[in-house]
Write a structure and sequence with these properties.
This protein has 137 residues and is mostly helical. It contains three helices and no strands. Helix 1 packs antiparallel against helix 2, helix 1 packs parallel to helix 3 and helix 2 packs antiparallel against helix 3. The radius of gyration is 24 Å and the shape is elongated.
Amino acid sequence: MLEIATYVLYLGISLAVTLWVGNTLYRNGRVFLLDAFSGNEQMADSVNQLLRVGFYLVNIGFIGLFLNTGSVPDTAGGMVRMLSWQIGAVLLVLGGMHFFNMKNIAGMRSRAMRRHDEQAPAVQASAPANLWKSAQG
């Protein structure tokens, strides 16, 4: 009975934390993605949804694989130790996934800023010539 209670607690806590983190990243990551995609809402929302699905797949897969750590608790203390080990590992994976996603988003933003900076001088350089042509006639 203690073994089943441990599994239920582990799954409940791990899945709840995963869903909470995934939804938090989804809601708050939109701003960064909009910036990275120069305000293109459709692209930002699409990438944000794909990131969320990938986040859930990796983390829920890890939670499932990590369910059986090979030991069965025989006391309440053993149950707490097992849960702390399992949930701690899940939290580390969630944190790692968060930093991985943030690194990728920062890279997308950096590339978008470089493209914007490369295009800006060309637009500025052609502006005076166009003004000169329109002033002449």
